[in-house]
Batch of 2 targets.
Target 1
Amino acid sequence: MAKIALRRVTKSFGSKVAVDDLNLEIEDGEFVIVVGPSGCGKTTTLRMIAGFETPNMGTLHIGGTLMNHVPPKDRNLAMVFQNYALFPHMSVERNLSFGLRIRHTSKKDINTQVHEIAEMLSIDGLLDRKPSQLSGGERQRVALGRALLRKPQAFLLDEPLSNLDAALRTQMRFELKRIHTQFPVTTVYVTHDQVEAMTMADRIVLMNKGEIQQVARPETLYADPANVFAAGFIGSPKINLFSAQVDHSGGQSVLHCLATAIPVTTEIADRLRSAHSETVTIGIRPEEIVLRSPMDHNPGQADISGIVEVIEPLGAETHIAVRVGNETLTCRTPPRSGFEVGSAINLCFDVAQATIFDGTSGLRLC
Amino acid sequence: MTTVARPPGSDDIVVAEPRLRSYIRHAVTTTWLLPSAALLIGLFVIPTIYAIYLGFTNLELLGQYAQNYSFTGLANLQRMVHDPTFWLSVKLTLIFVIGSGIVAQTVLGLALALLAQRVNVVVRASVGAIVILAWVLPEIAVAFVWYSFSQAGGTLSHLFGTPKSDLLSTAPMLVVCLANAWRGTAFSMLLLSAGLRNVPGEVDEAAQLEGAGYWRRLFTVTLPIMRPTLMINLLLITLATISDFTLIYAMTQGGPGNQTAILPVYMYIEAFQFNQLGYGTTIALTLVLIGAILSIAYIRQLRPELKDSTS
Amino acid sequence: MTYQARSLKGDEVSADQLAASTSDSSAPAVIQKRRSLSRPVLTLLMVIIGVVFLLPLLWLILASFNPGADDTLALPHPFSLTNYHLVIHAGAGAAIMNSLYLAGVSTIIATAVSTMAGFMLARRKIRFKGLILILVLFLTGLPVTLLLIPTYQIFVDLGWLNSKFYTSLVLASMSVPFSIWLLKNFIGQVPGEFEEAAAIEGASEISILFRIVIPLIIPGILVSAILTFINSWGSFLIPLVLDANPSDTPGAVGIYQFMSANGQVQFGQLAAYSVLFSVPVIILYLISSRWLSGGFSFAGGVKG
């Protein structure tokens, strides 16, 4: 088990920069998920940790040792590839025992360990089969088994669930988390799926265009995103984002948006002023919006009126898309709330609970 | 967010790769490439360059010019240009390539490919096997079989209704072309079959709905779509046929007289029967030149399609 | 999306359908005038072509078993193996052994050399790789006719004439460009992930090579080897010019010499010789076509 530290790591391919000045410290035993859209540099980062790519600049330390040019075979890591990379000409048993055979482990030990892992992953009936005879889920477990058998100082997983169907994916998420509890090895897991990141990670590393956007625990990332990108990437349904003009001219500062003016507290106003923001982006999670029929309007409450555009019943809840002026806001409501498409509706939210980002830089202000 | 690579600044850390590992990796790569390189350079590249030189010398197989030969400038070229046999040979080569290669093999190959689409599996597989067998047979065997076939009293003569005449003497180019067509059709058949399979069925059906008959569809829809395949086929046939030696030499030795002396055969005769190694090389160079020109012409024809598929 | 050419049966209205549609009074009959030829006609046409192609082959086989064979197509009378015995004793056996040597040695050399080069070109970064690949591609198109005389001259100077080994070397080098291309592309198709997985499992480069890479590229190696063997086996001009040693004569040259040897052409024996010489190649072709099944399996020629 080991700490992994990347300091000022940069990797380019020709003139294209894949990873730019990356700094990341992963603690011993931590389950870290690197997530981001395709092309963000997450796979390149993983491959640098594995040793298949070498950083152009910066240092990589695993377990305290400088590893920039150490070949993959000497790093004592294990990796699960996106397409599993099971050796097609070898049986499951030989695939699993490959690493052990390389190290000239005794036949008896190999046998014991292979059967132990196979049982744990429920693949002990498949030991004589070839990979081509296995289903996707079975192959994935063999790949996992091969990695676990090595007892490495860290696990690397490259989008391991992306080739599985939805039901299997959910099941494997539980399995992986359970295995990590049993074998608390430092794990670096790469995916583009934010649900996997949110459900499995101790900490999430969010990347975009070669740079780290934010490193935080899932709850923190959700509640306090560092910038517009982070807010928009994490959370399903996606956070509602719309721009607003800042107006300090009146006694109380207001934000002009959604065809209305929303007053803000002095605390928020001060922050906006000191950041010199003229336009901001407001982010409101769907669950933070309360929907009311216009009939229930209480005078004295600042409601925003809109028209119901789309209703998506999901069973346990319903998503409603409401059109307000030029913007469409998504809201979550309990099932059977009785709203109808095309009808007028009132939205209500507390701007103090919302996240406000600077209009130009995208960074979070409050 | 930068997307353009920048060179290392003063506060960047660059960890260099250990020298030894780098050397070893390069050494292994080079060692593995060396045998091929040696073989290709020694037995391919050097002879080619040597050929370009030899073509302008008076080297001979035996005699005084075998050891002491010299550069003779354009003498060989002049001799070639004024050599009636050379021009005959060029003509024969073109007849051979166009007649047996382009016309016979392509037409037959295409016919078989089209027929194969519409007959049942048994006929398709068995006729296919026969045609392919003709192709797999070593060239010398093909030469022998057709030699026998076209003798006086031979089967071919009977078929042509001239049982007494030795077709190889009376119509040598014809026999030789037939033999080559027989041998090479399978290649066209296979290549064009594959090309036909890639013609979208929907396009042909659309044409049918428009009322186009079979032949019209073939010429205005199917063949134009198959153009790249047809061009590649022609290119490969041309290159293979233009330098074909064994078939004709084994059957006729270029004769009777010079009636079947296509360029490769003529080259051999000049070089190894008349001892003119230098002149023979000149002929060989000309042959390669003709092949290169034709190749470029074909590839030019392919360009529009290549552009389409990459844009 | 895959497109499939379909049999054109669909548009043909058979005689029965025509009859049925005209007799059905409730629906107006759409009578399509059949423009294309019917299936039986086409089948006949193909069979005729097949028979025409078959005649020379038939003659060859029949003549080889016919002690009194001449140049006409006739059934063997009596059917016997005399021709085979005679021709083997007359040198065919030795010649075929020589062919085996030439083809075998050139195949081993060409395949080994091309596999190493193909692997490096497929996997490693090499300076001027693009240039090298174009050069190799260009060499595949160079005819042997050009190389013949200069190679002969070089062999004279080196004293390499009349040697089976050096002739094999030339045959090997003729196959190398195409083999390198074949193997480079083949190896390029094998995903690099297997090698990476093996590397991270702790395998050294040599280990990876023998345990992972070679097992995965064996089909490519075999195809390359078989193609080289077939080409070298049938080679005529090169051994003719480079090796005049009578005891080195390979099958192709042997058949030629036999043709012009005795005053009267020994049709039967030559037929037997030709059959003997052709059989190994045919077998190899059959074996390899199973691997290259897509292109060669004519029985699966038309999809759906």
Note: Chain A has a mean pLDDT of 90.
Target 2
Amino acid sequence: MKNFSAGPSFDGTTESASFKKEIFWGCESGNRNQFPLDMGTISSRRSSPDPKPMNAFRSAFMTAEDRIWIVDPYFLIPERGLPPDSRIVTILDWMHDRFAATDIRILTAEQKEVDENLIQFFQMREDELNVLNPRRHKRCSIQVNRRLKIHFNYLHDRFAIVDDELWHFGATVGGFHSEVNAASRGWSAVDSGAIEFFELVWKRCEGR
Amino acid sequence: MQWIQERDEEQRVISNHGVSRHRGDFLALVLSHESHAPQLITSLAKKLEIPSENHNNESLLEMVRQHSDLPFDHPMYLTVACALALKNHPTIEIWFAIRTLAYHSVEIEYWLDNAMWAYTEIDPDAKRAYTDLAKALYHKLETGKLKSLSERRNTERDNVWAHWQLTEYPLDELWRGLPNSDFMIYEDERRIFGLLSEIAPEIFHQLIGCSANPFLVDSALLSAGIGAFSPRFRQWEDSVRAAPAAFDPDGKWNGSVVLPLLLVHARNALLQPGKQIPRYEADEEEVASLTAQVTALVHAVVKVLYGRADALAAMTRWSTWLMRQLLLRKDKAPDDIRSDNFVDNALLDAIGEASKGTALILESPSDAAPWEAWCYYCVRSAFANGGFAAAPAYEEFVQQWRLTPEEWFEPSGRGLLKRAQQHVNGDEPPGLFANLLAIPIVHADSFFSVWQQLWGDAYYLREVLEYGSPDAGSKKYTDRADASELLLLIARIGLACFDQATAQVSSDSKTAAKEIANIHAAVTSAAKEALHIDDTLNRDKWQQLLQHLAVRRAYWDASYRNDAVDAVFEGDQGPSVSDYLRYFQVDPAEVLAFLHVCILNDFKISKLKEDLEASSIDLRVTIDTIKRLNSLRSQKYPLNGRAIAAMKPLLA
């Protein structure tokens, strides 16, 4: 096929943002920068009725300016013994009244613990945020797609993209998991191909 | 001709899991066993021929071990005995007994077909017996009456078959390479089919040609050297020639699964070398050599296919699928096999070239999935672009956009959305999809009028984008975003028309230049209109489109260029560069981004300075504002240091 690309070049116009690379472990005080080193800390986290998410991720989520894309089949499932809406309520709390991000996409799997009515809370929050901030440049859009396992059953790790920063999680995005697990941040979502990858998976899961 | 993977002989040995014995070894054993182990194999076979006996691998091997100083491996004797039993009694009952032995012995599993082959070399009856056996097994599997020894396999067979029965567009499943199935679901018998393909290829082709079970056919093809592990071009070529007609003259698929599966395997074999080359720091000589070899193979594949009576129809459907693959990926130049697009692009070119001079099928056939219509339209556009065929009539495409408000939620509106949304809008505008859709429009007498009509016909989409459709219910945002995406596609088509027309313009064609300038102004106006009403996620894409239009305005104006150009714009012809700057100045980052591209494209600094002055932009203040905003909220206002550094000549 003949090339269509005659004309001006747009190469070299973008500059990757640089991020500070960090690694975190989930713990009951929010998050820590090294492995839990005593059994007391490990077991208290393990037996916590409601394991705390990582502060660093919560903070990044709440202060995001544009995009929050999450791909995790188990992101919305509550820990054992907690009410079915508990995880969703926590995440909705992060979408505070002055929440600036406009493109929130959660790509997850359908789980019997979380029914469609609970997912509707995201739609309601989206409407509320748009009413609260009518002068937004772009409307806030919160999309939850639960067809990850059906259309893209190739994923092992979990990832989040906050603005242009890639987060990598060993367990649930946000560090909700109670067993020893870590997350790292500070990767460029553009340079690592995370944005292209997410768009590919999202498109597939839309059934297009 | 050989597949590239085929040339690597070593790989085939590795695939035998370390239990490799050559056919010659079995032939030697068959010819010599009576001299060094009289009656051993005959007595083993006799035992196996009593189906009621519960045979045990260990007890049978014990019989072998009783003979001392045997020149061959012990399991080889048992395997040859199995082959002999099947030769003497090619029945399902005996097969059951031998299959059980093979299930518990990796040697018998891997060697049985070699031992059977050895008998066919010395005994004409063996060929007949094994052919009968293979036919019986195939029919039993086809009718679902032959179950696997593994319950898991049986469940898998049931599941994939049930899924196949429910599939709305089964040809899509074939093109995808039957993604939900595993060729191993017929692992027990597949080697027998591989042997059949060698000793009686006509029977093999007849069997699979009549089969309606794609999973069984695929498994048989794989065993016959047409697939992932030991692909052989010759076998593929023979199978293509022997495969029954799969498509009617109008392109409709008649349900025969063999040819589509063969096409899938050909594409996989062509893609394989590209997967083994590192994307970075590859050996350029190796890449060039493999690219040339793959290109030659592409032409060979297409040549074989064009030897078939249903070639045109088959190519119509296959090229549509190939186009879809191209459109689903990002628009990267398919220069060599490292590009994911290389093979599909080369196949499309080769198909276009081969079909030159033939009357193409004009419409998607009745059994086509909804995505096919526009993909096939793009195929025909691509052929026109390559000079292989006439462009399709643009009216065919344009009339689909004439929607009334009532139709937006009717099948015609939903269909339009579905067709348009299958493709990535994430490329740099205009992107491959828009470029292909634009080709027939550019071929029209006045592409500007056609595009303007298209934008005009989409008035209802602008209504939806601004206010939402009353039929959208609670999904108002999605509805508006959908309308925005469709409008964005039209605008990108406009930009593609501009690009294609400018690529052809020459200094003496004033009419063409006027037409091009008109479409430039019209698309700019459309983008600005959309930016007034679009607050969906596509807003940034409109802004990006406007940047592209602005840069093109300068690029195609000789007064901005340090090199010669067949200019389209002159003087202050609107929208001028300063008009764009005035529009961008509400967001200092947009001004900076535009000027950065201008400098990278080596536009005249003096002209850009004039434009900054004309639009009352103080670049120093703009940069200070960007820096200040960044210091306040760095995440929201990122600083592009490279762009700021590039501004030096403009500040001097």
Note: The two ends of chain B are 63 Å apart (CA to CA).
